Amino acid sequence: MSNDETRKKRNQRAADTAARLEAAAPLFGAGKEVSSENTVALLEAVIRAGDIVNIEGNNQKQADFLAESLNKVDRSKIHDLHMVQSAVPLASHLDLFENGIAKKLDFAFGGPQAGRVAKFISEGKLQLGAIHTYLELFGRYFLDLTPRVSLICAFKADRNGNLYTGFNTEDTPTIVEATKFRQGIVVAQVNEIVDELPRVDIPGDWVDAVIQSPKPFFVEPLFTRDPGLITDNQILLAMLCLKGIYAEYGVTSMNHGIGFLTSAIELLLPTYGEELGLKGKVCTHMILNPHPTMIPAIETDWVDTIHCFGGELGMEEYVASRPDVFFIGPDGTLRSNRAFAQTAGHYALDMFIGGTLQIDKYGNSSTATASRVAGFGGAPNMGCDAKGRRHSTGAWLKCGQELPSLDQQLGTMPRGKRLVVQGVETFGEGRQPVFVDKLDAWKLAENANLDLPPVMIYGDDLTHIVTEEGIAYLNRCPDLDSRMAAIRAVAGYTDIGLQAKPEETKRLREANIVKTPDDLGVDPSRATRAMLAAKSVKDLVTWSNGLYNPPSRFRNW
C-alpha cells in the first residue's frame, strides 16, 4: 500500500465529514447559522443511513425541534439509525422507530415513554442495545458508541457557533466533545442567536451548525414534587430514614433520587431533623438537582454545598441568589454538568437513597419491567459500592464495619461501604406489589434478547430497605438466608412478606438487623403533614422570598 493510500485510509472519517458538510454548505447563512426552514435539508445532508446519532435527550432539556425535524427526513435515504442518548422522554424520540428512521437504541432513562419503549421492544420495532447508567453510556461515547452526528440544544449561540448552555448544561459538553474530536458533526438548536453571549460554555469550533428554533426547547421539571401530594405513609418512611439511617450513620454526603419519599425527607429536615439534633451532622454536601423541596433546608442553613446534574425549571433566580451553596458561573447562572455530578455521585458520596418498581427476594431491584422500561439513569452509578474509592468518612467506615467479615472483606483487610438505600411502600401504583419472587426484568431480557436481566441495583450493593414496616439493615446480615429473611420482614402483606416467620423476625430484631418503627422510637401517629416545613408549592415560594417561580402546572393559587 502506497503512502498516499495509507494516509487516505487513516483519514476516512475526516474526509467523509468534509464531504457531508460540503453537501450542506449551500444551506448556511452568516457564519454557522442555518435557518430553521432548512433544518430537514441540513439533516439529510449530514446524516447517512446506519449512522450512530445522538439527539440531546436529557433528563430535562430536549433538542425537540431537531428530533421533530429528523422525523421528517426522507426515510429512503436515512434509515436504520442507531440512536445513543441519555433519555428518550419525548414522543418524537420513539416516532423515529415507528417511522422506520431509527432501528437500534442505547439509552439510560425512559421517563414518560417507558411503556412505549417496552411495547416497541415486544413488537420488534426497536432493537435494544442496552439500558445503561449515565456514566456507562458517556464512557461508550468515547469508545464504541461515538456519535457520527449529534443534535444538541443550548439557550443561546452567536453566529460563530459559540454556545451558552446556561442553567441546564446537563449532557451537552460530554456529547459535543465525544462527537467533535472523532471527526463527527455537531448541530445545535438554540432559543436565540445573539451578538454576545453571557459566557461561552461550548466553543464555536466544536460546533458545525446553529439553528434558531421556532420556539424555545422543552424543559421538563423532572424533580419538582408538590408538597401537597406527599402522603402520611411517605412521611412515616421519611421519619424512619432520618432516625434509623441518617442519624444512625451520620451521613453528610448523599444523593436523593426522584420521588415523594425523598421530597418528604427534605421537608422534614427543618422540623423532625431539627428535633433529632441532626443539623450540621447530616445532609451537608449533596449531589442533587435544585429540588424546590430543598428550599426550606437551604434557608435554615442545613446545606453547605450542592452540585447539580441539571437545572430545575423555575429555580433559576433562587439558585442564582445562593452562590455559596450552588456552583454559579461568572455570569451569575448555575453551571450544571451531568458527567461531573455522576462522577461525584459514584465516588464521593456516602449514601444514595431512592426508590424502585420491584425488589426480588434476594434484594435485586429494577425499574425495567416487561410493560414499562423506565431505565436507570444514574441510580446504578450512585447505588453501588464504588470499588475504586480510597478516601474514608465516618458513615462509609461504619457501614463497612458492620459487614460480616466473611462476606465482603479480604482476609483481615478492613473496608468501608457505600450506603445504598431503597425506600418503598410495599405496594406501588395500582396496588402492584413492590416485593416479588422474580423480577419482571427476566421477561424483558427475553423479549429484547438481552444476555442479562436489566437490574438497576444488585442485591449485594443494597444495604438498607425502608418500608412502612421498618428498616432491613442488609449490610448486617451474615448470610443470604438472613438477608432474605430481613427482606421478608419488611415486605408487608405482599406474597414475599407473608412468608415471614414471626420467630425469625423476632431474632432479626434482637440482632438489630430489622428495626420496626417501635424499635426506632418513631411514633406513626406523628407521621402527618403537620410535620412538613412546607405543605404546598405556594409555601415553597414564600420560603424562597418569592424567588422560586414554579411552572404553571404547579400553581393552584
From TrEMBL:
Alphabetized Gene3D superfamilies for the sequence: Glutaconate Coenzyme A-transferase (3.40.1080.10)
GO molecular function, one term: acyltransferase activity
Record key words, sorted: Acyltransferase, Transferase
Enzyme Commission identifier(s): 2.3.1.187
Transmembrane annotation, as ranges: none
The organism's place on the tree of life at top rank: Bacteria
Record has Signal as a keyword: no
Pfam family, one: Mal_decarbox_Al
UniProt key word Transferase: yes
NCBIfam families: mdcA
Database matches in PANTHER family: ACETATE COA-TRANSFERASE YDIF (PTHR43293), MALONATE DECARBOXYLASE ALPHA SUBUNIT (PTHR43293:SF2)
Record protein name field: Malonate decarboxylase alpha subunit
Provenance organism: Rhodobium gokarnense
